[in-house]
Amino acid sequence: MKITAKLAYSQLKINRLRTAGALAAIALSTALMTVVCSFVASGNAMAVQLLGADYGNYGNAYKGLLLLPAIFFGLMIVIMSVVVISNVFRVSAEERMAQFGILKCVGATGAQISSVVLYESVFLSAVGIPVGLVLGLGLAFVGIRVTNGFLGELNALADMMVNKINLSVSFVVSWQALLVAALICFFTVLFSAWRPGRKAAKASAVDSVRGAGTITIRKTKPGKRERGIGQLTQKLFGCEGVLASKTIQRNRRSFRATVVALATGVVLFVALGSLSQQANALECYMQPTVEETVIADYSSARITRTNEKTGRVESVYRCPLDSDVGNTVAEKLSAYDGKSVYGLGLDLETYYTVLPAEVITGEMQGVLADTPQANYEIPVEIIPVDAYHYKALCEKAGVAVGSTILLNHYRYNDNGSEVDVTPYLPTLRSVTLKKADGSEKTWTIDGVLTQAEMPQELFYFNTNPIRLVVQQAEVRGYSWYATPDDEAAFIAYANTVLAEAFSADATTSYQEDGFSTRAYKTNDYAKVMNIANVLVLVFMYSFVVLLMLIGFTNVVSTMFTNVVMRAREFAVLQSVGMTQEGLRRMLALESILCSLKALAVGLPVGVAITYLINLPIRQMFPVPYAFPWLWVLLCTVGVLGITWGTTRCATHTLRNQNIIETIRTQSGR
Amino acid sequence: MAILTVEGLSKIYGEGTTAVAALKGVSFAVNKGEFVAIIGASGSGKSTLMNLIGGIDRPTAGRVTIDGNDIYKLSESERAIFRRRNVGMVYQFYNLIATLTAEENITLPRLLDNRKPDAAKLAHILAMTGLTERATHLPSELSGGQQQRVSIGRALINDPAFILADEPTGNLDSKSSHEIMDLLKLANKRSHQTLLVITHDEKIALQADRIITIGDGTILSDEVVKG
Questions:
Q1: B100 vs A6: CB contact, 8 Å cut-off?
Q2: Which of A24, A225, A623, B13 is least crowded, fewest Cβ atoms below 10 Å from its Cβ?
């Protein structure tokens, strides 16, 4: 073995704890990287199976969907690994500055010195990377099993709601994925070792022999403020506190990696915690508000085009539905067990109207436009309701059957909170409905229903500002809400009714038919959302926990090495009269100060990220920003616990230390 | 013939008001095979001179020529290789690599050169330094005198043109000191290796052919002791 390799090997053997830490970090990074690469390989296999070798029409979009998250997660792993692993090499190189100095005196060149550090990285990679690859394949296997569990449920739901699909990911052992993971990790480790190696090579031989090396002790003249803090620390924590704060202040570099690792953990956990909080809020919002348990629906395909005459964009329905047909289906469905089915048609895109400001409430004017205008162009929503329930609505509004009823209520999302407004004044007596082709007709408003008078079926998401309930209309879609005793049987029955009413070949797709029908349980959407939600969160948490384990190896090895390397300093302190208890207190305070630094960086960044995550969400959904108190608290406790516990364990090793022996043996170094 | 020439060598540490001149234009020459002792009180600039001659520091001004090579005209790597092949260094604190055995420490300069240590040569050096029995021991398993003998063995392995020893006996008892000085003198006499010893011990200095006294960064006296 080359002498440089031998020196690297013996260094690894001497400092076993750090070697183990570095190996764990490398193995974990490789494992995570392998998981990411394997998922890309499996995702690719699934996409090829579903879409064909070139991913079909939207190939680039799918590739992006597969690669972008992989690149994002890969980068996080690489950054974390570089921070942690380069710290291992930096500390290891600093510890050996004297040795490098001797080597230089004996005639080692700079290249030979840095190759000692590089050999260390090669040896560590040679063990850590294969272990990581195996571990990663194991994790990927478990991960894919878990994913398939979730996908199985999704498939079952999709089967009911849309049509037969079979999403499943297969576990693919791809040598390309393994090679990419191994290479990325190897170069990460090599890069992490390269910088400390180059620094060691550049340091002057005289300095290295003296052991001054690259440890920079910052000596700053204390300002007024610092003197004040010093006095406060002295009063609060005594001499040990002062020593601890000086160590942290003047030896920043040794603690930097620990602070970075801990702060990253805090940022990720706070962000993820808040994300799951918001996902839950979103899920609650998505929960159905109607009491009915089953929905059957019909929906026509639609073409959007520009009308040549007027230049307006118009929607043309391929197979519009006459509400009379919807009514007939409602009657047939009600015949199943005698319970009335609520039938509801919907046309959101055909009509618009222009209303003068005089008929619109001030509140609604603010919703429609930022600045007051004389006239407002408003999209209209036409809602034919089945005969039975339409009659009930007419009675409630106090008008004759055949009347047009205005739903005088508008619900919108105001930057995260749901707001209900009464949009129109009683002066609104008629509406001129305009179409994109320029034709128009005027409808009188015979009756009005307020928010309190509206049935729950009419509170669905994303309504237009003007909503008119009518007896009869041609619409794009129609829904039937039912509350059967046997849901599964009713769904089967509804499917046959729908098939009869709209004779479509069940195997053809939506675009070819021009319409689609389905019957599903009301909470199926929420369930899909929940499954997707849980799947994503399970993966994100696993990822963050594993990523944090990499950081944790650093915290442990830094804290331990810190104590071991400073054995002489501690012995000197003890020889001048510091008690064991005082020593422990000093180290505990150091760990607390280190944690506070990490929290001071991590918490504001983490909280800022949670706010940024919420910004786009609350633009679209009524999910307001909630400060992640719980997560801030958990992270604070966690970080303090981790550093304090580790230091406590490390100080335990000092217990049996003989003061004189330590001073003697360490003074020659 | 001069194997080592030092011309106008100066070294200033620090800058501005905190600048300290450790060496102020020192010049002298040493002939091949000579045994020169450099003495001076602590802080006189001895160690700075030694580091500069050994090529592990950089002078502020002046030149050091060894065997016709101006060593500070060489690049950092060239100087390292030159040092490993032509200069043997012995330090007060031995400066051995703790993880290598006595034998490996001795052959280190050759190993750095990627050259196989010559077995006969190694056996000869081990015998000469009295370490044959201890060849596979780690430095921590050796006494101070033995460790210093390892470091002398390391200095001799490449048959360097000259040996630089910085307080080689400074950390040893008087018996070990004798042994170490005998070993160094033996190398000087038998192989005609030039020997430069830095010391503050007059007894050791008196064994040399020539004594250079340094004080406050300059040469105070340069006298030949033996003819």
A1: yes
A2: A225
| Contact residues on chain A for B96, CB-CB shorter than 8 A | 102
Tokens, residue A217? 């002790």
**Distance between CA A332 and CA B43 in Å, rounded?**
109
Structure tokens at A244: 């601890």
Find the CB nearest A107 among B51, B83, B104. B83
In this structure, the answer to whether residues A463 and A424 fall within a common structural domain is yes
- CB of A209 within 8 Å of a chain B CB? The answer is yes
**Judgement on whether residues A381 and A457 belong to the same structural domain of the protein:** yes
Q: Is residue A230 part of a domain?
A: no
Determine, yes or no, domain membership for A221. no
Contact A107 B100 (CB under 8 A): no
Q: Does A661 touch chain B (CB under 8 A)?
A: no
In a domain, B119, yes or no: yes
**ipTM of the shown complex:** 0.83
Task: Flag if B80 and A99 touch (Cβ within 8 Å).
Answer: no
Measuring CA to CA, which residue among A669, A554, A632 is closest to residue A192?
A554
Last residue of a domain, one of A478, A506, A527: A527
Q: Are A628 and A610 in contact (CB under 8 A)?
A: yes
pLDDT at A119 over 50: yes
Collect all residues of chain A within an 8 Å Cβ-Cβ radius of residue B83.
Answer: 105-107
Residues of B in contact with A7 (CB under 8 A): 97, 99-100
A252/A315 same-domain check = no
Predicted local distance difference test score (pLDDT) of residue A178: 92
Instruction: Indicate if A262 and A308 belong to the same structural domain.
Output: no
> What single DSSP character describes residue A461?
S
Same domain, residue pair A488 and A536: no
Residue ranges making up the domain that contains A84: 1-215
The enclosing domain of B179 has a CATH number of 3.40.50.300
Answer whether residue B19 is part of any domain. Answer: no
B57 → closest Cβ in A99, A106, A206 = A206
Q: Is residue B26 part of a domain?
A: no
Walk along chain B (227 residues) and give the pLDDT tens digit of each residue: 788 999 999 998 888 888 888 899 999 999 988 999 999 888 888 888 888 888 888 899 999 999 888 999 988 888 888 888 888 888 888 888 888 889 888 988 888 888 877 888 899 889 888 889 999 998 888 888 899 889 889 988 888 878 988 888 877 788 888 888 888 888 888 888 899 999 888 888 888 999 999 988 899 999 888 65
Q: What is the number of H-type helices and E-type strands within chain A?
A: 19, 17
Q: Considering its fold, how many domains does chain A have in total? A: 3
Structural domain total, chain B: 1
A10 touching B (Cβ < 8 Å): yes
In contact, A274 and A613? CB cutoff 8 Å: yes
**Cβ-Cβ contacts under 8 Å for A241 (sequence gap 6 or more):** A233, A234, A586, A589
Q: Which of B56, B81, B114 sits opposite A105 (nearest CB)?
A: B56
Q: Look up residue A11 and give its two tokens.
A: 């260094």
Q: Are residues A499 and A545 both part of a single domain?
A: no
In a domain, B85, yes or no: yes
Task: Answer yes or no: are the C-beta atoms of B47 and B26 closer than 8 Å.
Answer: no
For range A581-594, the mean pLDDT: 84
Same domain, A380 and A519: yes
Per the CB < 8 Å rule, is A7 touching B97?
yes
Domain with B136 in it: 33-58+72-224
Mutate to test the interface with B, among A2, A102, A104 (most CBs of B within 10 A): A102
Q: How far is A251 from chain B (nearest CA, A)?
A: 23
CB-nearest partner of B111 from A3, A99, A204: A3
Q: Is B41 on the interface with A (CB under 8 A)?
A: no
B159 touches chain A (CB under 8 A): no
Please tell me whether residues A310 and A439 are part of one structural domain. yes
Q: In what order do the strands lie in the sheet with A440-444?
A: A440-444, A430-434, A352-356, A375-384, A466-470, A405-407, A447-449
Q: How far is A113 from chain B (nearest CA, A)?
A: 10
